[in-house]
Specification:
Mean pLDDT is 78; it is low at 4-11, 13-24, 250-263 and 307-315. This protein has two domains: 18-225, no CATH class; 331-482, Porin (Beta Barrel). It contains 13 helices and eight strands. It has an eight-stranded antiparallel β-barrel with strand order 1-2-3-4-5-6-7-8. The protein is α+β, with helices and mostly antiparallel strands.
Length: 483
């Protein structure tokens, strides 16, 4: 009896200790998450909401102007058709703008795509709000409630954007059908392009959200170590509601509101009863009908697969070749690179190596324009006379145009100062700088390495080398890396 009592006391003490450790973990985690995680989610949600709102207003305004140009051009061909087709176009766009401005809840699209970032952010913040960890946040508790509100506002913003996409798609289909018999030049194509790029802009924001950052990933890793958070996610996350996971709130609400709903076993019992009453051929007829139904479902599935896969045309597939860089931000269109070029010694110069850094701006998927700077390091006359020295600097511009595959046509203009620099007065006049006009071929070599994934080999001809004094080598070979 005493032994049993001792075991019970030990179990109770262990349970209390584990509970205390879990509470301590929550409190410690609240201190860690309070400043970084909560503030980061709040700031990112606010910034993304403002960006989506700005782009939506911008694209709707642009589409409205393009419809006005379509109407004006059609009026020259058929004034009656122009009045009929665009009778309420302006009112529809104004109505959309008002809904966006007033944040109308009736405007939210319930069929919006699932976003993992929103799910994790919303559920984790609600967990922190409902657990004792909030008590350890102090002044951050108010920020936590604000972060929950801002994440919800971002979720509504994506839903609103989905409704705008539906509106634009309907207008696009309507105009395409109504203007099919008229030759309006490129005006209708421009409208379709704008409609497509709005959809791509929203997709770009989705991808940017899912990228995440190290602070958020670390916070979620800490939270996932808590059984309480794992249980909370299973019951309250969006993913749980989408798949109706057992124990999730959506399942509990459904079962509570639909107590009369038939279960799978009851449906099977009804089928067996009716088959028995139908006679000996009922089972065979049932199996035949089931086979036909399954074949019909399979046929529909194949058609849907062909429609949305490579075998068919995507629902948002454009009728032009899109510029995938157009919807990216300025910073995301920048490409940083470095390259080196060595030149053997001659009567005037020692053996030198140009080390350059450059930044390129992607005009589209094929063309990149950029600027850069270089430093010329001297190594001496030969292997027996090694002497490291500073031999000058350079500034350059370049343009790369895709030819085929991984080959590019490259060109550029450079200014190089090829003398040791002792003061800024030396480089103040352009007369002392040597000009280079470069033309050539570049090839991108993909390497399976962590740091140098894109190696760039360049063979260039300096068209101005023959005018230089002293004359430089006309051909240059450079090796570069992009990151």
């Amino acid at each position: 009896m005493q032994r049993l009592l001792l075991i019970c006391i030990t179990c109770c003490f262990t349970a209390c200790t584990l509970h205390a450790q879990q509470v301590d973990s929550l409190l410690t985690m609240g201190d860690k998450l309070g400043k970084r995680y909560i503030n980061k989610l709040s700031a990112q949600s606010t910034s993304m909401t403002a960006n989506i709102d700005k782009q939506t207003v911008k694209y709707l305004s642009k589409l409205e102007k393009q419809e006005a140009r379509l109407q004006k051009k059609l009026a020259k061909l058929d004034s009656n058709a122009a009045k009929k087709i665009f009778v309420d176009a302006k009112q529809q766009y104004q109505h959309m703008q008002e809904k966006i401005k007033n944040k109308s809840t009736a405007f939210l699209n319930t069929s919006n795509k699932y976003l993992p970032w929103l799910d994790s952010a919303s559920t984790s913040l609600k967990f922190l709000e409902k657990n004792p960890v909030v008590a350890g946040l102090g002044a951050e508790a108010r920020k936590l409630k604000g972060a929950v509100s801002k994440v919800k506002e971002l979720e509504n913003q994506f839903s609103q954007a989905a409704s705008v996409k539906d509106f634009i798609r309907q207008r696009k289909e309507y105009l395409t059908e109504q203007l099919r018999g008229y030759n309006l030049g490129s005006e209708l194509k421009n409208y379709n392009k704008t409609a497509y790029y709005y959809s791509q802009q929203i997709n770009e924001y989705r991808e940017a959200l899912n990228d995440g950052n190290k602070a958020q990933q670390k916070a979620l890793e800490l939270l996932n170590k808590l059984p309480a958070f794992q249980h909370f996610m299973k019951k309250n996350s969006m993913l749980a509601s989408l798949f109706a996971a057992p124990g999730s709130e959506v399942v509990e609400r459904t079962l509570a509101g639909q107590l009369g709903l038939q279960t799978r076993s009851s449906v099977q019992t009804i089928i067996q009863t009716r088959l028995a009453a139908g006679g000996p051929n009922a089972q065979q007829a049932f199996q035949q009908n089931m086979g036909e139904a399954q074949a019909a479902i399979g046929s529909l599935r194949n058609k849907l697969s062909q429609l949305t896969s490579g075998g068919g045309k995507d629902l948002e597939q454009p009728d032009f070749k899109p510029n995938q860089q157009k919807t990216k931000t300025f910073l995301k269109r920048l490409e940083y690179s470095t390259n080196i070029q060595s030149v053997k010694s001659n009567y005037y110069f020692p053996t030198t190596t140009d080390i350059a850094l450059s930044v390129g701006y992607k005009l589209n998927n094929k063309n990149t324009v950029g600027i850069g700077a270089s430093y010329k390091m001297g190594w001496g006359k030969d292997i027996k006379h090694i002497a490291i020295s500073s031999e000058g600097i350079g500034f350059r511009s370049f343009l790369d145009m895709l030819l085929k595959g991984s080959f590019y046509a490259s060109g550029g203009f450079e200014y190089n100062y090829q003398q040791p620099i002792y003061s800024l007065q030396q480089i103040s006049t352009l007369n002392s700088w040597q000009q280079s006009g470069l033309l050539g071929i570049s090839k991108i070599v993909s390497l399976k390495t962590k740091y140098f994934k894109k190696t760039k080999l360049q063979f260039l001809w300096d068209a101005l080398s023959y005018q230089q004094v002293p004359r430089a080598q006309p051909f240059k070979f450079r090796v570069g890396y992009s990151f």
